Amino acid sequence: MEKLLTISVAAYNVEKFLRDGLEEIAACKNRDLLEVFIVDDGGPDHSLEIAKEFADKYPGVFYPIHKENGGYGTTVNYSVEHATGKYFRLLDGDDYLSTDGLDQLTDFLKENTVDMIITKYKRVGEDGGEVYNFPKDWGQYGNKIYKIKELKTDYAIGMWETSFRTELVKKHHRELPKHTLYTDQLFVGYPLPYVETVAIQPYYLYHYRVGRDEQSISVKSRSKHYQEQLTDTKLLLDYYNEFSDKDFSPLCMTRFYSTYLNSFKTLLVRDASRKNRKELKNYDKEIKNNYPLIWQEGTRSRLVRLMRKTNFLAYWPVKLFCDQSKIV
Prior knowledge:
Layout: E1 5-11, H1 15-26, E2 34-40, H2 47-57, E3 62-66, H3 72-82, E4 87-92, E5 96-97, H4 99-111, E6 116-124, E7 130-132, E8 145-147, E9 162-165, H5 166-172, H6 184-189, E10 197-209, H7 219-224, H8 226-241, H9 250-268, H10 274-290, H11 292-297, H12 302-309, H13 315-321, H14 324-327
Parallel strand pairs: 1-2, 1-4, 2-3, 6-10
Antiparallel strand pairs: 4-9, 5-10, 6-7, 6-9, 8-10
Helix pairs in contact: 1-2, 8-9, 9-10
């Protein structure tokens, strides 16, 4: 049976959550139209065994993949290369896609062809309790199909909300770096300039578990892995510079700009020191020299404007009085 949707599940040390997430997928009424790669990235736990259980129970739907540890990006690289579904999306192994959301998405994909689908997402705690809702500004668009330039928004679209036409992903994907966090920003950024049609869907699909210090979005992790974020930012902005015509849609431009802004904030939440302040200031100067249009976009942020206006002397009161978790 021709597959409608390929789901790439990054499974590294996620045995605590993986089974629940796979059960949500298995309960989908259109399960046989799914191709689910559960990519065990050389983890020491029992994620691979759980994946094999589902492959045995639902053959032709779940595919357990074992590889030596290479980091998140390498799990995506594998899945992009081997995907046969008409559409493609990512799922972290400690998160889940709701059964109801998958039913609605696959029903829509049976009848429609678009370049990208945007679905709603929630941030939830480890117990599944809701802590964050989908941004409200998408409500104005309703359940419709648009040309991407019709979406006048400054929201930075993420992998949680996006499903892409696989052909588009394969054509424009670039190998994501090994042992590097935050490569999901690259995954979304590479095909986005080529998206023409977008379907806005009004239901919750992705459920993103938050609240753990070891998560890549935590202040602790971002401070520890800041060089990896700078690496990803440079890769994406170098890609941006390859386009001679930079008449991007607002949705696309915000994705590029936000990658820089995320790096700026990550440098800001590191321990307060003259050295770290200098590194932040020099980073902003590097962006100005190499990516002037992206640097100009930085004026969208009050925080960036404050730093530049004070020659980064505002670094000290911001570090003293601001909650780091609010900055990021």
